[in-house]
Amino acid sequence: MSAVAADTVAPTATTPQRTPLRRRRVRPGKVLLSVLGLALAAVWVFPVYWMMNSAVTPDAILGGDTPQFLPLSFTLTNLQSVLTDSGFLNALGMSLMVTGLTITLVLAFAFLAALAISRWRFRGRTSFILAVLFIQMLPAEGLFIAQYQMMSSLGLLNQVIGISALYVAMLVPFTVWMLRGFVAGVPIELEEAAMVDGLSRPRAFLRITFPLLAPGLIASGVYAFLQAWNEFTTALVILPAESAQTLPIWLRSFLSASANRGINWAEVMAASTLIAVPVIIFFLFVQGRMTSGLVSGAVKG
Amino acid sequence: MTQAIGTTAGSDGIAIRRRRRPATPYVLLIPAVAALLIGLGYPVYWQIVTSLQEFGLMQQFGAPPTFVGLDNYARIFTDAEVWSVVAKSIAFCLVNALLTVGIGLGLAVLMRAVSGWVRITMQITLLLAWATPLVAAVTVFRWLFDYRTGVVNWIFVQSGFESFDGYNWLGNVWTFFMVASFIVIWMSVPFVALSIYAGLTQVSEEVLEAARIDGAGSRQILWRIIMPLVRPVIAIVLLLQIIWDLRVFAQIRLLQDAGAPIAETNLLGNYIYELGVGSQDFAGAAAVSLFVLVLTMVLSGPYVRYLMKEDAA
Questions:
Q1: Residue pairs between chains A and B whose CB atoms are closer than 8 Å
Q2: How distant, in Å, are the alpha carbons of A196, A208, A242, B20 from that of A189?
Q3: Option in B7, B218, B286 nearest A146 (CB)
Q4: Looking at A37, A63, A79, which one is the last position of a domain?
Q5: Half-sphere exposure of A161 (CA within 13 A, CB side)
Q6: Closest chain B residue by Cα to residue A287
Q7: Residue A56's domain spans which residues?
Q8: Is A141's CB within 8 Å of B292's CB?
Q9: Residues A207 and A60 in one domain
Q10: CB within 8 Å of chain B, chain A residues 114-153
Q11: Burial letters B125-154, b for 16+ CB under 10 A, else e
């Protein structure tokens, strides 16, 4: 793949530069590359498009012999029937509670820790940072049996508190690492200047530093939301009861239930779309940071 | 890992605030450390202890566990099935990580070569794929590859491959892993492509200009100037892909729902799940889990070192 692209790049630019009078020459190589780029873009977006297209098409047409590639038989029935499904609403409520509790705790805990490591040098600081970075990489698959056992013995299976506690532990390391950059970006001199002007340290912090950190807290909050909202593996193990399902788990059982009577793909795609759309919107909101996140380690798999 | 938090190996002497010996930072760390100890520290401790004990049906009903040393490890790692799962996981991980990085690199180079609006179109479509939640993505792929009314079979049949009419992709082990790879690659290429592209834009115009003046062709510029400069980025994304592709539990689990042969399509995470939740063999599951954790730790070493270096810079 990379070789193909590289080979096609080369001839384009090596063509000798004849300069016709003020006319941009359309080079055939460049056109070819653009076509290739657009074709790949189409391949990449197709699953997302197909999900949304199927969500607004009647199931009878989806089951037909020829796929309908445009939403010509547009309907909102599928979305309506998912939105009025009691299982969906129940899972939505569960997801909102778990995500809400997780975000609140993660931001509070991680913010304090980020403050500690970026504003103080103390014994154990490097060890803490190292631990945070390593813990960030731990796979849920290597822990879920133990977590299941722990929550089961505490009677916290199927409870918002139980799953949220695990999500907080899963997200704190990465949020600490992300917020640390934001805290370090606010110069301590600003706070000190305010103290010279007569504010106490806590007031200087609340009035001067905290507002400057708001964008960082919002970005970290959105990250935590995306992770907790999409989480599947831990939820599958810790929330076995149907009444405690979060949205990803509910979507899975919705598909399985539908499979028993010949899958209603229109409804399943409507459900997928309803779960995906808020995520896509929030994601695009923080995408600038996502793309540059590699350098700062602010991307979690 | 738990010990690492407690020990004080740090030797940072310089205090930003020297007014008093600070107790504050330790107080600020308490909630975070407590959350980590409860959510991750205790489970890891439990796994270590359990992996050294007999934890069978008797213990389920309250009998005290007996210490059996490394028996569980011996039992698990002499089991041919475990090794077949490990081999499948590593092969799946390497194939996907290499393909992902290869395709991502190709897309990044392509994005650099095309004009503005084509590039923006490519970036937006990549972001849409990246943003799609995993469960929704797997569900869509199941629909695309559905054997009765899926688009993929329809396209094959239209192109003259009649034998694909009603072909069940998820019923055969090889095509099952192929579909799983499509999902993994589709979801992870955007991160790789956009990261490498960001790296490519960092290559300064002056350097390229100097190379051109010295008579380098574009092929030489690509391979001799640009590639060496973005090599660190490529190395890091490859490492991250390897770590992330080792733990493809959810994709496999969700595809297995379509009626795939479970025992033959299990990867490490799924195997642990079957062993623990399915067969209630907690000691065996704990032993395999620790193997996965140690493997991840070892692989994460270089990435953590890179982050620490970036942090210090």
A1: 375
A2: 10, 11, 54, 19
A3: B286
A4: A79
A5: 6
A6: B127
A7: 2-13+26-79
A8: yes
A9: no
A10: 115-117, 119-131, 133-135, 137-150
A11: bbbbbbbbbbbbbbbbbbbbbbbebbbbbb
Q: Read off the pLDDT of residues A33-86 as tens digits, 9 standing for 90 and up.
A: 999 999 999 999 999 999 999 999 999 888 888 888 999 889 999 999 999 999
Pair (A124, A234) in one structural domain? yes
Spatial contact of B155 and B201, defined as CB atoms under 8 Å apart: no
Query: What is the token pair recorded at B200?
Result: 């490519």
Q: Is B233 close to A142, i.e. CB distance below 8 A?
A: no
- Is residue A18, in this structure, part of any structural domain at all? no
SS3 B67: strand
Contact A202, A251 (CB under 8 A): no
Write the pLDDT tens digit of every residue in A273-288. 999 998 999 888 777 6
Taking an 8 Å cut-off on Cβ atoms, the answer to whether B218 and A255 are in contact is no
* Residue A108 forms contact with B (CB below 8 Å): yes
Residue A185 counted as domain residue = yes
ipTM: 0.86
Is A68 inside any structural domain? yes
Q: What single-letter amino acid sits at A257?
A: A
Q: Does A163 touch chain B (CB under 8 A)?
A: no
pTM: 0.86
Angle at A105 between CA A100 and CA A108, to 5 degrees: 125
On whether any CB of chain A is under 8 Å from the CB of B212, the answer is no
- Smallest CA–CA distance from B221 into chain A, residue: A10
Query: Is residue B131 within 8 angstroms of chain A, CB to CB?
Result: yes
- Other beta carbons within 10 Å of B69: 9
